[in-house]
Design a protein that fits this description.
Layout (H helix, E strand, L loop, with lengths): L1 H23 L2 H53 L1
Keywords: Coiled coil
Protein name: YtxH-like protein
């Protein structure tokens, strides 16, 4: 429990330091920080969308294989 508390306090301290530095920086530096954050957000969204598209592709392929197997079983059953 002590490690979690220390970690949270350290994270809170870093956040406070970052906020203080941001507030003390020039408007140009603040805009640079905002641009970095927006760029990171866009990259994360793109990565998430790519991952979602890949998952949908895999699901579609699995569904197609299942449909093929089902058709094969139905054809075999009708020939018996």
């Amino acid at each position: 429990m002590g490690n979690k508390t220390s970690g949270l306090l350290a994270l809170l301290g870093l956040g406070a330091l970052a906020y203080w530095k941001y507030k003390k920086s020039t408007p140009e530096q603040q805009q640079a920080v905002k641009d970095k954050i927006n760029n990171a957000k866009d990259n994360i969204n793109k990565w998430g969308n790519d991952l979602k598209d890949k998952a949908n592709e895999v699901v579609s392929q699995a569904q197609n294989k299942m449909d093929e197997a089902k058709t094969k079983v139905e054809d075999t059953a009708s020939n018996i």
